[in-house]
Batch of 4 targets.
Target 1
Amino acid sequence: MGEFTPCPDEAVNAAKAICGPITLSEITDRRGSAVWKATGTVATLAIKAGYGEGEEITAREGAVLDQLPGYTVTVGRYASGVWYVTPWLTGPSTWDLFKPIRHGDGDHARALAGSADLCRAVAELHAAGWVHGDLQPAHGIHTDHDAKLLDLSWAWSPMFPPSPLFQGGITHLVAPELAAAVESGERPVRTTIESDVYALAGTLWTCITGRWPLDYDAAGIGPDVGPSARRAAIAAGAIPLHSAEPWPTAQAPLRAVLRARAQDRPRAAELAVALEEL
Ligand SMILES: Nc1ncnc2c1ncn2[C@@H]1O[C@H](COP(=O)(O)OP(=O)(O)OP(=O)(O)O)[C@@H](O)[C@H]1O
Ligand SMILES: [Mg+2]
């Protein structure tokens, strides 16, 4: 691990202009993008800097946040790349929210309410004409009121076309038809509301079971298999769902989504209702 990249002065100044003196804490720095939590006296902000391979991806995310209803962002360039400042979303990620469930002593009603909140956040994004394209257990934040989505680098809408840089997202949560599109060399790859719903169900499944949905071992796919071969197997439907069933009632509707053809998957709003009614 190298040094955490320095926070751009321009971003620090922008944050100070919004919320007064700030204290910075380092959150993540990988693959050319770094995030800090900037705690001020009147507000707390997230600062993200993109440099090197992350520069254009972060620039794109800043532009998405600028257009999305319900998000606020200030974007700028600095010598090494791009930065943005956006409100810090306070609350656990979906992964963290489910930690007690994974340990066997969780509040099931709370987890189901959180699941429905995450589905609604995705449903709202879809209703606004956007596809997220990179839903994962760490990309939902559960605030006191609702769930909000993070990491919108790959989001697209008819007014904001998909990026040619997108390689298909996290392999473990890629819908079979999306895996096929990526492997066919189609660029830009078009994520869809159906592939988002697959990733949404896969995210919730992962948060419940603590493991990715597909049973690679059962299909003879070892840990050293690269993303391309993994995607090819997913596209071919060659990998069964893992049989671990710590919470069968919640997993049943998720299993149905993960097994359905794209055109047969429910909408995110329908999945919210199905989970809430359990
Ligand atoms: N606005 C925010 N509010 C709260 N936390 C945030 C915010 N933005 C980012 N984070 C935190 O920083 C982490 C990294 O953010 P993000 O996923 O956008 O960056 P990334 O560089 O794309 O990371 P990765 O490549 O791992 O997906 C998030 O998982 C979350 O913990
Ligand atoms: Mg991320």
Note: The chain has two domains: 9-87, 94-276.
Target 2
Amino acid sequence: MHYAVAHDKILRAVKGTTSQAGEELEDTQYQRVSNSFARRQMSQQQIEELEQLANTSNVVLKTHRRNYQSFVTDAILAEEVNFVETKLSTWMASMEKRANRAQNKKNAQATHTGMECCCCFDEVAVEDMVSCRDEGHLFCVDCLKSFAETQIFGMGNLGIDKETKKRSLELKCFHSDGCASGFGRSGLEKALPKRSLEKYDEVQFILSVEVAGLDDIVSCPNCGYQAALQPSQRVFKCPVIDCLYESCRECGEAAHIPL
Ligand SMILES: [Zn+2]
Ligand SMILES: [Zn+2]
Ligand SMILES: [Zn+2]
Ligand SMILES: [Zn+2]
């Protein structure tokens, strides 16, 4: 069995599947995984599903034992378990985030301290909203996330620039007034999960190369983020929030004056 397929099967065995769909399913899975984390062991059902998997797989879990902690005996398997655990904890973190947002929303609505999302018109906690750069149009992170993901995964581009009528090089505000502003980097980082943000960067990079040509592409020496930079600019200010490194375009060292 191919490892990627095996990974998915292990994850499914641990998370479980039901006849539910979408968020409801994820909530059930979240309960199940956090319960087994809390007890430091898996439920009978989870173990049975893993055993079933082991019987149909000749690569993975051949030597698994009943106990979650001690069933790792060989190196390959240890790697597998590590991989799955990392994947699981990433997923747990995103589920926790979602639960927190739901709670924030409840609080905001109860205390009337929220703001109205320009897209779904729900009252949402301000900390879970992102505004467009120039006009301050507020969107809840869920709306921004689904808008951005539809665009980058569905269309493979960042939409049309309303002013130039050409392919936009950044995601534009989707307020119904037809706002021409984009979003700041921090807003995108807040709304998009890592995988989507990477896809966004990739789409933006490809578009930039198409429009600007390879000569104008610079990459941050600190984090590797790539973007188009006007020929007139000598200093590249990395927009990635964890980085913000300023580098010299010519030598790749920290930005220096004189140039
Ligand atoms: Zn919304
Ligand atoms: Zn706007
Ligand atoms: Zn950087
Ligand atoms: Zn330099």
Note: Helices lie at 3-15, 22-39, 44-56, 75-111, 141-155, 185-191, 194-212.
Target 3
Amino acid sequence: MEVMQMLHMNKGVGETSYAQNSKVQRKIISIAKPIIHDAVQEILRSNNIESMGIADLGCSSGPNTLLLISEIIDVIIRAKSCSLGLHLSATTELRVFLNDLFSNDFNTIFMSLPAFYNKLKQEKGPELGSLFISATPGSFYGRLFPARSLHFVHASSSLHWLSQVPPGLDSKAAGEALNKGKIYISKTSPQCVLDAYALQFHNDFSLFLKSRAEEMVGGGRMVLSLMGRPSYDPTTPASCYQWELLAHALMTLVSEGRYVRGNGNQMKWGD
Ligand SMILES: C[S@@+](CC[C@H](N)C(=O)[O-])C[C@H]1O[C@@H](n2cnc3c(N)ncnc32)[C@H](O)[C@@H]1O
């Protein structure tokens, strides 16, 4: 089945949900906070904005999903209170678009909105202004929004997902023969496997940038956070050790006659 139709983080708010298992991703957002603040200030400095379009791409569901909105509101309220030479209309309204793939748990996000709105009203008071939150399901590897409708685009811990398994590695037989049964780049992967992943990332990321270039206004800003690795070589232990362990565990389960189904952050198995 197509990655875009089946990929989703674990739904709901239970013990194994993404909502309860996304502390690393939360840390990444908090590390990027000063960069997000600077980017929003830059937007306000260069434009006279009455209605700011904001998109969070690959938002998933859980506490991290609404974190970005609180951050941006803080910047705007702070900018309103201390005149920093920013062009702020007293009525600046925020249009926030939460994007993820079609099977993301948007219902859990919607259910959490009343409590979120109440908390914001209590914490920010009348300074809050108008806030319109909506969902935009679909792949960020392609157009999602009308032309020139966005001022700020954010994506955290989501752009490392490719749109598909690289061609040539996608059929079970070809993938196994080329990549020696591994599910990602490992220390036994030949150069052609590394090239196939690099080309897929290049094609996906180019399409991402092309799509956003049409959707963003001039002077808009984008903050993208992706996990990096300490070495250029993706086959060093520091780069692929966790994938080696995961592949080993999955292959053991399969060799024991158990099947494995993956759904984002979690794997399930059965007899
Ligand atoms: C690890 S989660 C990160 C969620 C959130 N941004 C955070 O920091 O906690 C990655 C999210 O990216 C989404 N994603 C992956 N590929 C995508 C695509 N092509 N278009 C939209 N969302 C995508 C996944 O469904 C998943 O919800």
Note: The CA atoms of residues 54 and 202 lie 25 Å apart.
Target 4
Amino acid sequence: MAEQNLATVAVTGATGALGSRIAARLADRGASQLLVARDPSRLPDLPGAQHRGPATYEDTAAMRTALAGASTLVLISSHPTGKRLEEHASAVQAGMEVGIDRVLYVSLIGAGPTATYRNARDHWLTEQFLDLSGVRHTTFRSGFYASTPAALADEEFVIRGPGGSGPESGRVAFVTHDDIAAAITNVALGDSTDHDGAVLDVTGPEALTLDEAVPRIATATGRPYRYEAETLEEAFARRWRLGISGEQIEAWISWYQAIAGGELSAVTDVVPRLTGSPATPITESGWWPSPKTAW
Ligand SMILES: NC(=O)c1ccc[n+]([C@@H]2O[C@H](COP(=O)([O-])OP(=O)(O)OC[C@H]3O[C@@H](n4cnc5c(N)ncnc54)[C@H](OP(=O)(O)O)[C@@H]3O)[C@@H](O)[C@H]2O)c1
């Protein structure tokens, strides 16, 4: 397919799971890109890609140097630090100062100031900042990753949390990193203004309860993953005994609660519409992190 716009794309977070997939797809399509990292020695070597950095989002001067020469910025959200708004604002500000004229921001589904999932709340702040900034932008609210349940399992492959149980419990449309990367890559390489200002919920193809999703992961992997619903009190007590911080306890309990409450059950057409292919079912995710590796 002939690309309409081969202007340079800067990809942050390119040492990570999502950014590296976007970078690989951009390289496959012959794009010119700047890969930005805190530690550039960990960046992949790709045709058409320059390594930039070291640059952390919060270091505006380093980000200015790293982003110089790009017109589109793919901004992968940072890890939850309590300062994500400031970090993202710094990166966007730096980009605007050196000529970035479009930002594609990776937000999280359900982003909102009162979102049940704790880590979804500050994404909304970044979305507000982008609206105020005046820069062209598109927000991709990624669904919950298909890889996360495997990473949350313990050594016995048990995934425990207050995510509800039974056919009436809440559902979640898990989405693969590759589908999100494909959708973002296609928008990055197009010159259409159709997605300017859009907030796109990027979901998988079906909404499943955890009772349904986890056995599918077991079938796909041949490993004995199973889900055990916990009460809120059980969820708190077990994590506390494991020595997990209050902030992390709240984050993980709220991940399950958001599912149980049905906040993630929407299935959208964003992946098929932007990529031309159906969204990937969880059974075909193909990436199953080791137990106990959730961030
Ligand atoms: N939708 C979901 O279910 C879900 C699940 C988990 C996370 N997330 C969010 O989605 C983002 C991308 O997911 P992922 O799977 O690609 O995560 P990942 O593999 O942890 O990658 C995150 C990337 O962001 C970079 N980064 C983080 N903080 C930064 C900062 N302050 N300045 C510069 N770079 C920074 C990391 O750099 P280093 O390599 O130097 O650490 C890494 O390259 C995560 O960062 C998180 O905000 C979403």
Note: The radius of gyration is 19 Å.
